[in-house]
Amino acid sequence: MFASVFSTVTVLAALAGFASAQQLTLTEPSSQRWWVANSQNTLRWTGSTPAEFSVFINNPDTSLLTSKLALISVQPLYEYSKTVTPTLKAGTGYVMELTNILNSSDIYVRSESFEIKAAGSSYPPQTSAGASGTASGSASGSASGSASAASASSSKAAAGRSNAVSMGVAGAMGAGAVVAGLVCL
């Protein structure tokens, strides 16, 4: 009997850990990661379920927002961030809500209260946890010029070989194979 109770408790604990690992969590905006009015702002989340959700912003202060405002009707989970440019008044007490796409009163997660600062204000400093970086670079003109000349001449030759290559692939793969969207008969 003791082993049976122990096994049940172990299974329930494992399931609870599994569920919490998948839980949807809003990481930005937050009390430390504010937004700027009439500017591009980032919404970030983590989790592995649900596959999609709707995004709303709400504020109990009706002088700032008269009712819940839909920002995104269907947002896929796998993107994990979205840049939005809502037209909202500066103020405090804003809350993001990620909801069921068919029922906005079914709230999956609600952010902590955050501020929208006046247009033109600076964004909070980036930290390693919430940082998003961009990379830029340049290439020399001679390298791209020679590459485009080579590709132009090779594309003419490749056009004549495309049927032969397709037939060769079809022969190698066998009848009925699908290769790069082509059905080999």
Any overview of this molecule?
With 185 residues, the protein is of the alpha+beta class. It has a domain at 21-117: Immunoglobulin-like. 29% of the residues lie in helices and 31% in strands. It has helices spanning 2-22, 141-173; strands spanning 25-28, 35-36, 41-46, 52-58, 69-76, 81-84, 91-100, 103-110, 114-117, 178-179, 182-183. Strand 10 (178-179) and strand 11 form a beta hairpin. The longest helix is centred in the C-terminal third of the chain and has 33 residues, at 141-173. The N and C termini lie far apart (63 Å). The relative contact order is 0.14. Residues 1-21 form the signal peptide. Keywords: Signal. This is Ser-Thr-rich glycosyl-phosphatidyl-inositol-anchored membrane family-domain-containing protein.
- Rounded to an integer in angstroms, the radius of gyration calculated over CA atoms is 26 Å
As residue ranges, the low-confidence spans are: 5-21, 130-185
Helical percentage? 25-40%
Mean pLDDT: 73
Total number of beta strands: 11
Question: In sequence order, what are the helices and strands, one letter per element?
Answer: HEEEEEEEEEHEE
Classify the beta-strand content into a percent band.
25-35%
CATH architecture of one domain: Sandwich
Tally of helical segments: 2
* Alpha-carbon distance between the two ends: 63 Å
Given the helix and strand composition, which structural class is it?
alpha+beta
Strand count, sense and barrel status of the largest sheet are:
6 strands, mixed
- Principal-axis shape equals globular
Tell me the name of the CATH class of one domain.
Answer: Mainly Beta
Instruction: Using the coordinates shown, work out and report the CATH topology of one domain.
Output: Immunoglobulin-like
